[in-house]
Design brief:
By secondary structure, the chain is of the alpha+beta class. It has helices at 7-13, 25-36, 41-44, 47-53, 59-69, 73-93, 97-130, 139-142, 160-164, 191-194; strands spanning 134-136, 148-150, 153-159, 175-182, 185-189.
């Protein structure tokens, strides 16, 4: 039987007062910290190792022990996060309705289109590499696991996660092009189609 223990319950069981932050502040500080990297191990220490070295039992003992080990960590992390929050404030002051509308358009229209049509871009790139033509598959070809053709070669386009699935019921009898979505584009493995050159 699996049981979830909420953060509130953990605090209660460990006799720690709940943290109270004004609305929206905790996620904003967290985001600033992600950018500033204020609580990375090089600043605050490798917490999983430090907690193993700690021999006390209470939160107060932990805090005292930690501050002896890393006396400047809280101050340095706070300064890094505050600097990033200042950057956020400067940026927020430059955001107007037009910029928000541009962002929404890019997300809803452009990125949706790219997300739905990236297979065509992969086929075009593969055709470019092989110096040939490409085409998307028709409905009957798609039912056979074919996403398109590079020259006369039928191909299927699958995410990298497809490759690592151990027990796949689907068997595709064509060359597979694997891709991985990245923050700034796609990583595509044309290895199987390049073998056909």
């Amino acid at each position: 039987m699996k049981i979830k223990i909420s953060l509130e319950e953990l605090r209660k069981y460990l006799e720690i007062e709940p943290a109270e932050f004004p609305k929206y502040t905790a996620p904003i500080i967290n985001l600033a910290n992600q950018y500033a990297q204020g609580t990375r191990p090089k600043i605050v220490g490798q917490m999983s190792e430090l907690i193993q070295e700690f021999t006390g039992r209470t939160l107060q003992e932990w805090e005292q022990w930690y501050l002896v080990q890393k006396p400047d960590a809280i101050r340095v992390a706070t300064e890094k996060i505050m600097e990033m929050l200042q950057n956020f404030e400067d940026t927020l002051n430059s955001i107007d309705k037009g910029l928000v509308e541009q962002w929404v358009r890019d997300l809803v229209v452009v990125k949706t289109f790219i997300g739905l049509r990236f297979q065509e871009a992969i086929l075009k790139k593969g055709a470019e590499i092989k110096g040939t033509s490409f085409r998307l598959a028709g409905p009957e070809e798609e039912s056979k696991g074919i996403d398109g053709y590079i020259g006369d070669l039928p191909v299927s386009i699958k995410p990298y996660t497809y490759e690592v699935k151990a027990a796949l019921s689907e068997r595709i009898a064509v060359k597979i092009i694997y891709y991985r979505k990245l923050k700034d584009g796609l990583e595509v493995d044309f290895g199987e189609i390049l073998e056909e050159i």
